[in-house]
Amino acid sequence: MLVKVRGQLRLLKRVMSERPDLRHPLTGGVQTLSGIIGQLRDDQQRISLERLRGYEGAAAAAYFAAFTQLFAPSLNFTGRHKRPPPDPVNVCLSLGYTLLHYDAVRACHIVGLDSMLGFFHDVSFGRESLACDLMEPLRPLMDRWVWQLFRERTLRPEHFSDDNGRCLLNKAGRQHFYAFYESRAGAARRLLRRYGYALSKRYQQAYEAG
User: Is 112 helix (H, G, I), strand (E, B) or coil?
Assistant: First the structure.
């Protein structure tokens, strides 16, 4: 959780340094995330899962309120919406998170962990909760990649279409997205395996201490 919020804060600060015109609309998000990081550091020895999820929700609200400011108004990105994604940015976020989740499942299998048994995400039928846990710190990385795709105009409005309120990424857009992801996914996959090995080692130590 702390790594994820730090990543969100780092992205907003990076944008502020590159886009001085966005300094004012991003300041509130930066201040809120900085405060949450301080609270997490103070509470980390005694924090409950419920309280941790509360921090996550507050961080997400502040972060996405700021993150929407990074994109052109013509993209109609007003916040995180999943089912169905109504705009190009949400389409790319959902697709990117899905690819990260797949890589997290694979990382679990590589290190010998059951991808269904998570600790932050509740165990639920059909959900690979541990994979969800492992990918959480990497979400800000995917957010940055999506921002780059639109900032560099690798993806443009003509790569999307509307289907009764549901935004779709067309074939040419998907080709651009997958090529971009594969060119950068090596670092993310290594991180996921590192997290998996660290968690596996922690489980082994707890078992031996028994």
Answer: coil
